[in-house]
Amino acid sequence: MLNATKLSAELHAFHDSRSPTFVGFPTTRDQARDRWASAFDTYVGDLVCLDPLLAPGNGANLLGVKAAFRAPLSLAQSIGAPAKAAEFAAAWQAAMLSILLLGSPAAYGVAPVASILWFPPPDLIARHAALVAELTRLFETPAVTIGLRLDNIANAFHTATVAMSAQASLPAGVVQLLTYG
Length: 181
What we know:
- This protein has helices at residues 4-15, 29-44, 65-70, 81-100, 124-140, 146-161; strands spanning 49-51, 117-119, 164-169, 175-180.
- It has 181 residues and is of the alpha+beta class.
- It has a four-stranded antiparallel β-sheet with strand order 1-4-3-2, with no helix packed on it.
- A hairpin with a 5-residue loop joins strand 3 (164-169) and strand 4 (175-180).
- Helix 4 packs antiparallel against helix 5.
- It is globular.
- The protein starts with a helix and ends with a strand.
């Protein structure tokens, strides 16, 4: 089950020198991209299919999350808050699509993967837009503390991610809606 606190702890580890879990700031932009992607990858590692309730690990392929999240991130220092927010939301969207469009056919006793057609979540665009808006607000608002800012960023990602749905078209015309959390 997804937990915003887990994502927050991952962010604190590389971005909050006051955190007891702090391991150090990234020294390069490439390292920062990798740490953000790793943090999100660790967070979604707890993703489970809530409806229908499947065995742990079924219904989600998490292998491409880190690469998908990392790819859109430039982390250029010269861009403003709206562009940074859009970049992070694009990373989230890419990661979510890497999960939701590659569901496990084993969950349905179907093989090979090509026998299931996956469709983007019907509310992906709305969730993406809401995440851009929330991250823009957070990035434009002075933070009381870096810890609070990281907690708020983690909560924004969590809100966008929790109860995400995907639709799968199974053989014989069966359509299944999956809800993740």
